[in-house]
Amino acid sequence: MFSPIIIIEAMINGLLTGAIYALVALGLTLVYGVLHIINFAHGATLAAAMFAVWGLNAGFGIDPYVAIVIVTPVFFALGYGLQRFVIGPAAHGDDGNILLITLGLSILIENALLASFGSDTRSIPSDFAFSVVEAGPFLLSSAKLVGAVGSLVVAILFWLLMTRTDTGKAIRAVAREKLGARLVGINVGHVYAVTFGLGCAALGVAACLLMPTFYVNPRIGGAFVNIAFTVVVLGGMGSVPGAVAGGLIIGVVESVSGLLLGESLGQIGIFIIFILVLLLRPTGLFGARV
């Protein structure tokens, strides 16, 4: 039987990891909330962002946290361009086409990464990854603590953007009623592209916060997007607060399950939560009832 201190420490570390999960899920839920589609290229885009962070460090010695100011705007521009000039025109207004296009982009990005970097796993060597912060009887990873704080700051900025700016109002208007938004003069195509760009920008930040403690290979995005999808379903499709709450809950469940069942079985708890939410509350914690 584990002592209460060990269990509480596992829960705290789960919250720190869950904050990163929330950031990855944030882009997924934002795109769904406006475009009403699941972006199947989400995981591959995260892998590309992580390789970008690794490349900046390996080639130019840029610290992953400093790389945020480079990677974030680049991936916003990438996401904007993909939606405005590739996904939107190729979809011809059909959501089913968008799903197929993002699936194709996922395959394209993953294979481009395989061709460029091979299947080897890469990481960024850093002494900071092994440093810890003492909080009473608990030992917390410094890098995870920075990642959690950074993720929550980004989530707050997203919330402020959505609730306090004209861009956010336009995004919410398009999400609620696309035709009505177009009739009052909102450029729906631009709003779609901005939303997709913001989703990719969130992945850029997540990649910078992940790389000090994690590794990257061309297929790593799949593991994160599976968890992110569970987070989105738990929190409520399209809900930014739901993505944050869902990420924190899933992080704790994964950490405690790993402690009790072993690291290799740690994700069983995540999928039990996923099934229970689908059975008992399909709209999620913050999703609107229909």
Describe, in short, the structure shown.
With 290 residues, the chain is mostly helical. The protein has a domain at 22-221.
Summarize the SSE layout with pairings.
Layout: H1 4-35, H2 42-60, H3 68-91, H4 95-117, E1 122-123, E2 132-135, E3 138-141, H5 142-164, H6 166-176, H7 178-183, H8 188-210, E4 215-216, H9 220-235, H10 240-261, H11 268-280
Antiparallel strand pairs: 1-4, 2-3
What does this molecule look like?
The chain is mostly helical. Helix content is 73%, strand content 4%. The chain is built from eleven helices and four strands, in the order H-H-H-H-E-E-E-H-H-H-H-E-H-H-H. The strands form two sheets. The chain has a two-stranded antiparallel ribbon with strand order 1-4. Strands 2-3 form a two-stranded antiparallel ribbon. The longest helix is centred in the first third of the chain and has 32 residues, at 4-35. The chain is globular and about 60 Å long. The model has no long low-confidence stretch (mean pLDDT 88).
Strand percentage: under 5%
Which parts are unreliable, with pLDDT below 50 for 5 consecutive residues or more?
A: none
- What portion of residues is helical? over 70%
End-to-end distance: 44 Å
- Mean pLDDT equals 88
Rg calculated over all Cα atoms: 19 Å
Lateral strand order in the biggest sheet: 1-4
Number of strands: 4
Describe the biggest sheet? 2 strands, antiparallel
The DSSP helix count reads: 11
Main structural class: mainly alpha
Shape: globular
- The arrangement of helices and strands along the chain is HHHHEEEHHHHEHHH
